[in-house]
C-alpha cells in the first residue's frame, strides 16, 4: 500500500496541472484580445465610439482611405459603400455612407465587422460613429444608408499612406431572436 | 491495484486470467501494452487504407474514384487516425510494455486507470469512424479542423468528432499521468534519474508535454462545441470572435503534439543504435538535455504554422528564429547517434536498419522543416505538397520507423521467439523504397505549386503523382508482411535468450524471454 500513498501527491499535482492547462486554453481567448488591442495587430479596431477632445489636423500629409464591403457566405443583402475611396488629412473627421438592402421576403438582422489594413494602422483609426457598433434590422425589401464617421490619428506612422477599411456583413438573425421578433412584429 | 502489488506475498505468481475477460479487465502492464500495440496497428491499417484511397484518386489527374467531398473526408480522417489512433497509442503501448521492465518496476503505478485509458480509445475511434457513415459525411475540414470550416460550415457529424477528440484526449492524459507516476515513484533502488534508459527519459518528457497540451486541445474543441450548439462566438467573426484565434490555440497544442509523436522514437533509437554498435550511447547527458530543450522550444514556435495569416513582422521574425533554434538540440541528437555508430562493431539486423534509416530520413525531414521555417519562403510553400512531403518524412521514417525498430528490437522479449530476419529485412527494404518513392516526389510537386488536400491537379504534376502513388501502394502492401512477421513470431520460431542481442543493455534483458506475466515483484538492485 505504500506505493498507493506515494502516488497521491504526484497524481494530484498532475491532475491540477491538467485542469490548469484546460483553463489556460480558455484564458487564451481574452489574452488574445488584449494582445491584439495592446499591439494594434490583426486589424481590429475599437468596438466603441471614439471621443475627440482637441481637434488637430495635420495638413502636411494626405492619406487615401479605401472602402471595401464584403458579404459573408450565405448573406443575401446588397451591401456597398457610397464611394470606393476618399482622400483626407490626419486628424480630419470624415464620413462615408454604406448602402444596404434586404432583397429577401423576411426581416433580417445583420452585423458588420470592420477590419483595417495595414494591421499596424488599426490602432490609429478612430470611429466616432459606426453602424458596426450595433446590429441592423431590415424589413423585406427595405434599404438603409448607414454612416461611419472616423478620424485617422495624426500619430499614424508616416510610412502608411494608404489605408483600407473593410466591412464584412454577417447574417445574425438566428443569433438575435429578440431583435428579429421585434422586427417581425413591426412588419405585421 | 493491490492484486498486482501483493503477488510477491504468495508462493506462486498469478498467471493471466482465462478467456476474453482477461483483456477487458486486465490491469497488467504487459497485457495493456499489447492491446495498445494491436489497437494502434489496426488503426495504422485503417488510416493506411484511407491513404490508399487518396493515392488511388491522385494516381491520375481528373476525378476517377471518389468525389471531392469524400476525398476531403479521407484526408481528414487519415490524418486524425494516424496521429491520434496509430502513432500516439503505439508509443503508449511501448511505454506500457517497456518502462516498468526498464526501470525495474512490477507494473505501472496506476494499473486500473491504465485499463480505463486503453478502453477509452476503441470508443473514441469507433465514434470517429462512425461519422463517415452519417448523413452529411464525416469530418471534411482537414485534421487541423480550422474554424469556422469546422463549426459554421461543418457537417452535422462534427459533434461526434468533438466527443471522439475529447475521449482520445482524456485517454492520453490518463496515460501520461500514469507514465509520470510510474517513472517518478516506481524506479528500482539505485536507478537515479540520470541512470534511466533514454527511452524512459524521452517518455517522461513526452508525458509532460501531453499533460500540458492535451487539455488545451480539449479546450479548443469545447469552444467549437459551444460555438456550434450554445450560440457563443469564440471563432465567429459575426459575434465578435476571431477565426485566427482558433489557429493560435490549435497550434499551441499542435506544435508540442508533433514532438509528442517523435520524442519517444528518439528514445527508442537511442536504445537500439548502441545495442547494434556494441558501444555505449555517445553523449547520454547531452541527449537528455537536448530532449528537454526541444520540449521547451516546442511551446514557443507554434505560429510558424500560420505565417501567412497576417502576423506582424516582429512576430514572423521571432517565430522564424525560434523555430530554427530547434535545429540545434536536434542536431546534437543526430551527432550523438552518428558518433555512437562511429568505429562501432556494427551489425544490421532489422531494428538497426530501421534505426539507421530513421536517422538519415528524419534528418531529411528536419531539413525541409528548416526550409519551411524561413518565413518569407513559407509564403510559397504554405499549403502545398512540400508541407505534405515534410511532415510525412518526419512521421513515416521518423515516428513509424521508430515504432518498427522498437517492435523488432523487443519482439523476442514479448514473444519469446526470434522473428524471421529475412522477412523483416524484406519488410524494411520494401518500406524504405516504397516510402521514399511515395514522399520524395512530393517535394518537387510542392515546390512547383501543387496544393494539398485537392483531389485533382494540373496535368504537369501527373508523372510525379503516379510515382508517389506506386510508392504508397508498395509501402501499404508491405505492412501486411509486417503483420505476418509478427504473427509468425508469436506462433513460433527460434527460442529467444533472455538477451538475444549481443550488445543490448538494460534491465529488460535480465528477465527471461518471453517476459513472465509478473516481473520485478522484488525490485532489482541497480549499481
Tell me what the structure shows:
The complex is a heterodimer of chains A (188) and B (527). By secondary structure, chain A is α+β, with helices and mostly antiparallel strands. In chain A, 26% of the residues lie in helices and 35% in strands. Chain A has helices spanning 2-39, 177-187; strands at residues 63-71, 78-81, 85-88, 93-101, 108-117, 125-130, 136-138, 143-152, 162-171. In chain A, the strands form two sheets. Chain A has a five-stranded mixed sheet, with helices on one face. Chain A has a four-stranded antiparallel sheet with strand order 2-4-8-6, with no helix packed on it. Chain B is mainly α and 527 residues long. Chain B has one domain (2-7, 30-509): Cytochrome c oxidase-like, subunit I domain (Cytochrome C Oxidase, Chain A, Up-down Bundle). Helix content of chain B is 66%, strand content 0%. Chain B has 16 helices and no strands. In chain B, helix 8 packs antiparallel against helix 12 (350-373) and helix 14 runs antiparallel to helix 15. The longest helix of chain B has 36 residues, at 68-103. Chain B is globular. The chains are: A alpha+beta (188), B mainly alpha (527). Chains A and B meet through helix 1 and strand 9 of A and helix 6, helix 7 and helix 8 of B. Chain B: Its EC number is 7.1.1.9.
Q: Keywords, please?
A:
heterodimer, A: 188 residues, alpha+beta, Ctag/Cox11 (Pfam 04442), 5-stranded mixed sheet, 4-stranded antiparallel sheet, 35% strand, B: 527 residues, mainly alpha, Cytochrome C Oxidase, Chain A, globular, disordered N terminus
